[in-house]
C-alpha cells in the first residue's frame, strides 16, 4: 500500500493538511450559508464569513512553537464568540462547533470544553425534534473535534520527528563513540602505557618483554579494528570494487541490506573477499556483479562474473571452508553456473532483526482517536437503523470496521485489493436499508482508497464512490449534493489521519536508518583510525624495539636513542587512542613525514623526500595515507629505496609513495589500501596503487576546494 509517495514534511504540509480537514468539516455549513445568500443576503454572507474565520483560526495550531499565551487566549475567545454567533443568531447547525472544540482540545482547556459541550446540548435540545437527533449532532461535534485534534497533533509530530532526525543521529554517534572509547580504554591503553614504561627505563634487559608487549598490543589493535569493520559489509565491498577496478574488470555493486550486519558481516565479508579474489585470479572476466539484499529474513550476498567458472580457482578446500563458516552462522553457501553461463557464488545468513521502535505517545493517541472514530461511526450508524434490521446493521458494521483496522491501521498488504472490494460492497449495498448515517461508511472507505492506491487512481475512485453514495443515499438534487459532500468530508478526515500515521512511521524508520548509518560510519572511522594510525605507530614501535635489541651490545648510544623514540611513539599512540572517541585526530603532515623517514631509515631503506607545502586540512587526510603506505613498505616489500613526494598542483594536493621492493605476483592493493580509498573518497579524493615499471607506486590526490 504505497498511496501517495513523495509528500514533503514542513510547515506548508502541516498547514495544508490541517486547513484541508478544517475546511472539510466546515464545508457543509459553508454550502448552506451560500444557499441562504439569495434569500437572506446578510445572514448568508455572515455564515460564510463565520465558517471561513473558524477555518482560518485553526492555522495558529500549525506552528510548532505555538503563538504567545496572550495571542492564544485572544484567538480562543474570538473563536468561541464566532461559534456562538454562528449557532445562536445565525442558526447554523451545532456541528460547526467541532472546530472550536478541536482548539480547546489542543490547548487543553477542559473547563471551556465542558461549557462548549453544555452549550451545544442546550442549543440542540431547543431545536431538535427528537432526542436521537440531538445525540446524533452532538456525536458529530465530538467526532469532528477529535479528528481535527488528531490531524493537527500528528502533523506537528511529523514536523518534530523530521526536524529531530539529525540530532538523533548525532546522539547515536556520541553514544557509539563512548562505547568504542570504553572498549578501547582497557587493553590497548594498558599496553601503550607498559611500552612507554619499559622504554623509559632505558634497560636493554627489558627489550624482550617490550617486544612481546608491543606484539600483543598491535595484535589487539588489529583485532579490534577487524571487529569494528566486521559489523558492516561496506569496507569489504569498497575493497572489492578497488580490486576489480585494478584488474580491469567492470564492477557493478548493488547494496540492498541494512547496516550494521553484526557477526554475520564477518562471514559475508570473507565470502566476498574470496569470491572476488578468485574472479581476479582467473583473469578472463570482463564484468563482475556484487549484490546484497534482504529476503525472507536473510541477508543474501551474490557475486556473479562472466569469466570462466572460478570454482576451480577457488578450490574445493576453500569452498568447503567457506561453506562451513556460513553454516556455522546458520547460513547457506552455493556456487555454480547460472542459466546464462555466468558463475555465481551466493551466501545467505540470517538478518539481524530490526529493533522495534515504540510509537510516540501522540501517535498512539491519534490511533486511539481513529478507533474512537470507528466506534462513533458504529453508534451513529446503528442509531438510525430500523429495529428489524439491527442484526444486519451490526454484522455490516463489525465486518466493515474489521477491514478498516486490518488494512488501514495495520497496513497489511496481503489480499488488500480483495478487502477493498469487500469494503466497497459493505459501504454501498446496505445504504438504502441501514439509514442516513450509513453514508459515513462510504466516506471512510474513500479515505482508505486514497491511502491504499496510487494517488490519481485513489482520488478518482474516492470521488466516484462519494458521488455514488450521494445518488444512492440522497433524495433530490440538494440531498444528493449534501450527501456527497458529507462523504467527501469523511474521506478527507480519514485520509489525513491515515496518511499522517504512515508519514510519522516512515519518518521513524528513516530516522532509525539514519542513526544506523551514522553508527556504522563511526565504527568504520574508529576501525580505520585504529588500523591506519595506531597500528602504524605500534608497527614502528615493534620495528624500533627489534632494532634496539640488535644494537644493545654493539651500539649502546644508538640503542638508547631508539628507546627514546619508542617512548615518543607510545606517547603519541596514547594521545591518538584518546582521540578515537572524539572527532578524529588532526595529524601534522610534516610530523608524519619526519616520522615516516625515520622509520624507513631505521629499516635500512634509503629515502628520497620531495616536500612541498600542503594546506593543513588536506595534510590531515594525507597523513593517514602516508602512514598506511609506509606500513605497507615495511610489512610487504623488500625495498632498499623509497621515494615520498608531496605537491600541490591544479587545485589538488598529491602524495606519492613508491619503493623498489614490489613482491612477485602483486597486482592489486590490499585491504588497508581499500580502507584508504574509502577515506579519500569521503573527502572527494582518489587513490591508486599498484606496480609501476618495477616499482610499487601509491598515489593519492585530494581536491583543495
User: Could you tell me the radius of gyration in angstroms?
Assistant: 36 Å
Which regions are unreliable across 5 or more consecutive residues at pLDDT < 50?
A: 1-8
Whole-number mean pLDDT: 78
Helix vs. strand class:
alpha+beta
Q: Quick one: biggest sheet?
A: 5 strands, mixed
Pick out its properties.
Heat Shock Protein 90, 5-stranded mixed beta sheet, single chain, disordered N terminus, alpha+beta, elongated, 705 residues
Notes on the structure:
The protein is of the alpha+beta class and 705 residues long. Among the domains are: 1-127, no CATH class; 231-355, Heat Shock Protein 90; 586-705, 2-Layer Sandwich (Heat Shock Protein 90). 66% of the residues lie in helices and 10% in strands. It contains 22 helices and ten strands. The chain has helices at 11-36, 41-57, 69-87, 98-106, 110-127, 131-184, 187-200, 207-230, 234-246, 264-282, 311-314, 316-328, 361-383, 390-409, 416-428, 439-452, 455-473, 477-551, 556-579, 589-602, 616-636, 671-682, and strands at residues 250-254, 287-295, 298-305, 332-337, 343-350, 606-610, 641-649, 652-659, 686-692, 695-703. A five-stranded mixed β-sheet has the order 1-2-3-5-4. The protein has a five-stranded mixed β-sheet with strand order 6-7-8-10-9. Strand 6 (606-610), helix 21 (616-636) and strand 7 (641-649) form a beta-alpha-beta unit. Helix 10 (264-282) runs antiparallel to helix 12 (316-328). The protein is elongated and about 115 Å long. It starts with 10 loop residues before the first helix and ends with a strand.
